[in-house]
Amino acid sequence: MKTTKIIFAVVAVVMALTFVLAGCKPSTTQQTTYSISKATTSNGTFELNVNGKVVSSAKSGEKITVVPSASEGYTVDKAYYKTASSNSTDVTLTDGQYTFSMPADNITVYVEFKLSTAVTYTVSKAQSENGSFTLTVNGTEVSSAESGQEITVTALPDEGFVIDKIHFTTAVNQSENEVVASDGVYSFVMPESDVTVYVVFVTAQPTTHKLSKESDSNVTLLVDGENVETPVDVKQSSTVTVQFDVQQYVAMEVYYTTSNGKVEVLPAEGIYSFAMPDDDVTVGAMLVKTTDTSAVTFEYLEDSNSYSVSGYTGVDSDVVIPRVYEGLPVTQIGSYALLSTSVKSVVIHSDITVIDMYALSSCVELTTVRFEKGSKLEIIGDAAFMSSGLTSIEIPSSVKQIGIQTFDSCIDLTSVVFEKGSQLQSVGGNAFGSTAITSIRIPASVTSFDCAFNDCRQLVTVVFEGNNITEITDYTFMNCLKLQSIVLPASVNSIGSKAFFMCNSPLVVYYGGTQTQWEQLENKPQSTPYFYSETKPQESGNCWHFGENGAPVVWEI
Fold first, then answer.
1. Which pLDDT does position 30 carry in this prediction?
2. Are the C-beta atoms of 390 and 408 separated by less than 8 Å?
3. Low-confidence residues of the chain, pLDDT below 50?
């Protein structure tokens, strides 16, 4: 029993010593301390704390607090630190404090400050010559801006000038600060100072392009008034004038071609010219040689000191009216001049002002009459083309008067077109009677309109473009068996006897006035009338308007 107690006591002592020795054994792990540097800053200072104590080093994992102190008018913009390996880590603001855990590396801490309140400065524009410019912030024009805002400079050079340089000066420093374009946009960041912006424009150096002409064009070219031999390099926008021998030729077309295609040159005051485009140019012309004056007889017109064509003795079926005879202009085709001749085509130059009565009447083989561009023709006289073989004609815009029976009984005439900008004022009785035209648009300028379409049995549509005709005279559309529709202006207040006799019935009439006005007219055709409305009506009714192509369109309700 005594032995047992002794053994138990020894074991207890051994266990106690083991416990004490184990608790007193020193740790073999030691934590490394890393340095903390403060970067130089402006507009404020800062401290680095661990548990409220300023530190310049710390162990990894310790909580570092950044305590910034901004100068007056400034506030913290951002805080961050960089490790020795240059990795940058932002320090975020949490519960009013900038804190982070110390990494296992030496670090440098940065704090940047910014203005705490926005300050506005003046943005002035210096006077500029040969152009103008605007200063904008986010698309709004400004004369002042906050520091840090982006100012956009939009410069607009006058014609013939380009931007040379854009710069600004500050109130603090008068040296030039160049504004460089990025993707074609000039902009700069507003500094902490008033600024003055300058834009300098200089004369643009025009590009040059090759000017040539077609080898068989029979034209000469002038550049800015000087004769040139082609091909030649010509500055963009230079004036190119196309000339030809007007005593020998009449121009049916003058044109030039570029990489984009063909461009027609129209005469102004009888001169063919154009501005050199930003492209190479080849000039061409379709010229027809005038008929030899020996095959033509002339009559002197004393009142105008010019000549009129009085006869044709030649055998050529294609006649080009001469422009000059004995040094004087030819301005008229006289009465009966080519009556009943066997001519097939006639070209009429731009200086002809009158085609007198019966001038080309009964020329049954005549199918084509063409007018030179820029025609000055004013009068086409009575029966001038009556009973000829014409198939179509475009009447120059200069024509003011078409006489009685001018195209009467041209049974093959299917198309009559009035050149854009027509100045036509009066159309005589039976002017287009007994022709095969299928449609006609009467120019807005016409004020006097007689029974011009009697017995046009192929006529389907008629449009009066203006609002000047007051009367549809007796027999105007009599025997127009296929007439289906007509646009009548509101100005019409009288319809003559049998004006629509033997027309297609019922006729569709697009009337420019109201239903009340229409009902007051006498001698109305048997018709379905529609009444003009610029806008779509709210209620049902027979209303119409002009479509995009100038044709009448009924409003659908």
1. 62
2. no
3. 1-29
DSSP 312-374: E----SEEE--SEETTEEEEEE-TTTTTT----EEEE-TT--EE-TTTTTT-TT--EEEE-TT
**Rounded to an integer, what distance in angstroms lies between the CA atom of residue 402 and that of residue 338?**
19
The pLDDT assigned to 550 comes to 86
Rounded CA gap, 242 and 227, in Å? 10
Query: In sequence order, what are the residues at sequence separation of 6 or more whose Cβ sits closer than 8 angstroms to the Cβ of residue 294?
Result: none
Q: How far apart are CA 191 and CA 193, in angstroms?
A: 5
Cis peptide before 529 (omega within 30 of 0): no
Give the integer Cα–Cα distance in Å for 509 and 446. Answer: 20
- CA triple 19-20-24, angle to 5 deg: 120
Coil, helix or strand at residue 27:
coil
Q: Which of 58, 66, 16, 10 is nearest to 35 (CA)?
A: 58
Burial 488-521 (b: 16+ CB within 10 A, else e): bbeebeebbebbbbebbeebbbbbbbeeeebeeb
Give backbone dihedrals phi and psi of 5, rounded to 5 degrees, phi first. Answer: -60, -40
Assigned token pair, 196: 């003055």
How would DSSP label each residue in 389-451? ---EEEE-TT--EE-TTTTTT-TT--EEEEPTT----EE-TTTTTT----EEEE-TT--EE-S
- The DSSP letter of residue 87 is -
Judging by DSSP bridges, how do beta strands 485-488 and 507-511 pair with one another? parallel
CB contact at 8 A, 477 and 503 = yes
**Distance between CA atoms of residues 227 and 135, nearest Å:** 47
Single-letter residue type at 534: E
Q: Is the pTM of this model over 0.85?
A: no
Residue with tokens 């002794």: 6
Rounded CA-CA distance 478/429 in Å is 12
Q: How many helices (H) and strands (E) does the chain have?
A: 2, 52
Helix (H, G, I), strand (E, B) or coil at 58: strand
Alpha carbon separation from 191 to 114, 126, 147, 199 (Å, rounded):
13, 18, 5, 18
